[in-house]
């Protein structure tokens, strides 16, 4: 039986990947209501820890995630959804939230290198000044 194990804050981690390419698009959290709505509607719903609010992916931006498959891990404390992504997954306007590669620089100092970082939309146009 599907019996998700929510953490002390009432959340499970959710990894969203592109159903066609397998690329990781984002990692977010779901509370019980977000998980229920995702299952019922087929749209990805999440819980924002910073805003302490439920949100449907794309409700502000139009960058909707349609869930094609949902899986849970062996402990049922994490969820993986394979989605059909409309536009960008990242609030920065990029296709994926994982657009920075960790690489070694001079003296083995770790640095970030942009990869697949092209913006599909301008966050200021979609979210306003708060972006």
Overall strand count: 8
Spatial arrangement of strands, main beta sheet = 2-1-6-5
What helical percentage do the residues reach? 10-25%
Q: Under the CATH scheme, which architecture would be assigned? A: Roll
Number of helices: 2
Total individual domains:
1
Name of the CATH first level: Alpha Beta
CATH superfamily: Phosphoribosyl-AMP cyclohydrolase
Determine Rg (CA atoms, Å): 16 Å
Describe this entry's structure for a reader.
- The protein is mainly beta.
- The chain has a single domain, classed as Ubiquitin-like (UB roll) (Roll).
- It has helices at 32-41, 123-127, and strands at residues 12-18, 24-30, 45-48, 53-56, 65-72, 78-85, 100-104, 110-114.
- The chain has a four-stranded mixed β-sheet with strand order 2-1-6-5. Strands 3-4 form a two-stranded antiparallel ribbon.
- It is globular and about 50 Å long.
